[in-house]
Design brief:
Blueprint: H1 3-12, E1 19-24, E2 27-32, E3 38-42, E4 45-50, E5 53-58, H2 64-80, E6 93-95, E7 98-104, H3 115-126, H4 145-152, H5 158-176, E8 185-187, E9 196-199, E10 202-205, E11 212-214, H6 217-229, H7 234-244, H8 254-270, H9 277-292
Antiparallel strand pairs: 1-2, 3-4, 4-5, 5-7, 6-7, 8-11, 9-10
Length: about 300
């Protein structure tokens, strides 16, 4: 799905000929013009800002259950009082085989989010019990590895693909056997500052797709890895651990969850290699660092 196709789906959903903005009892109010839709992101979802709405369009119908769960999560988080994006319609639309969800647009950010903004939100999420009325999935970090490597095809060295499959097969049972330090339960699943919006009323979670029920340590390993691999300022990581109240690197299982996430991150890059030479170079950099056992080789976006 490219931007042009996503805009066709906007039109098919009636969002380019007088969509509605704001929600009242599941119905929308106020006219917007889809020609003003501004593309915010294009990945597994195309995300548009449209008047007072944000519209998310999933790549295929297989993502409909995830869209339904994301809307249920938004309601649940509203009930618990956790600051997060709020749905503008209670159910997803299925338009030309694509799930479409509508969200209230947040006020403009007052500043970029920092790791210290994320920590209090995670503490509140990690204090929640399991939701009632729907079930959160486990955090399957490695579930996409085979699909991403298959999409890479002949663009990557078969030996590198085999190496990542072996790592996946080793880390899957190792992660399942971990003894947690924290009580397992609801987690965000992709706990990074980019998924926090700092508005005039403070930090708000803006991405609910990866919410899961699993080891709470998953949420903390993300920033530990960002510190070592992606150039996060160690002082910013220290501020995060101080605000959260614990440093996951003290936990003996940290290396296992980190290794699983690194394996998934490498395989995710591989799917872009057939059409993006920079992605291929980054894939090769990451695999080489894993082969060499160097935990601090810098990884880059592409």
């Amino acid at each position: 799905m490219d931007e042009a196709r996503a805009r066709e789906i906007l039109a098919a959903a009636g969002l380019s000929t007088g969509a509605t903005a704001g929600a009242t009892n599941g119905a929308t109010t106020g006219r917007v013009d889809g020609s003003d839709a501004r593309l915010l992101a294009l990945g597994e979802n195309a995300v548009f800002a449209l008047g007072e709405l944000v519209v998310k369009i999933g790549r295929d119908a297989g993502l409909l259950p995830r869209a339904e769960r994301e809307l249920a999560l938004a309601d649940w988080l509203a009930e618990t009082g956790i600051p997060a994006v709020r749905a503008a319609e209670p159910k997803p639309r299925l338009v030309d085989g694509h799930p479409v969800t509508l969200w209230h647009r947040l006020p403009e950010a007052v500043r970029p989010a920092e790791p210290r903004d994320l920590a209090p939100l995670l503490r509140r999420i990690h204090a929640l019990p399991e939701p009632e009325g729907f079930t959160l999935p486990r955090r399957d970090l490695l579930g996409g590895v085979e699909r991403w490597l298959r999409l890479a095809g002949d663009a990557v060295d078969p030996a590198d693909a085999a190496f990542l499959r072996e790592r996946r097969d080793a880390f899957t049972p190792a992660a399942a056997a971990l003894t947690p330090h924290l009580t397992p339960g609801p987690i965000h699943g992709d706990a990074l500052p980019r998924n926090v919006h700092v508005g005039p009323d403070g930090p708000v979670l803006v991405d609910l797709e990866t919410f899961s029920s699993d080891l709470r340590e998953h949420d903390l390993v993300v920033l530990a890895l960002s510190r070592d691999r992606y150039g996060l300022d160690p002082a910013a990581h220290d501020a995060f651990t101080e605000a959260y109240g614990w440093d996951v690197r003290e936990w003996e299982g940290c290396a296992v969850l980190r290794g699983a996430r690194e394996t998934a991150s490498c395989a995710w890059v591989a799917q872009h290699a057939p059409t993006n030479p920079k992605a291929l170079a980054e894939f090769e950099r990451r695999v080489a660092s894993l082969r060499e056992g160097d935990p601090e080789v810098r990884w880059y976006p592409f």
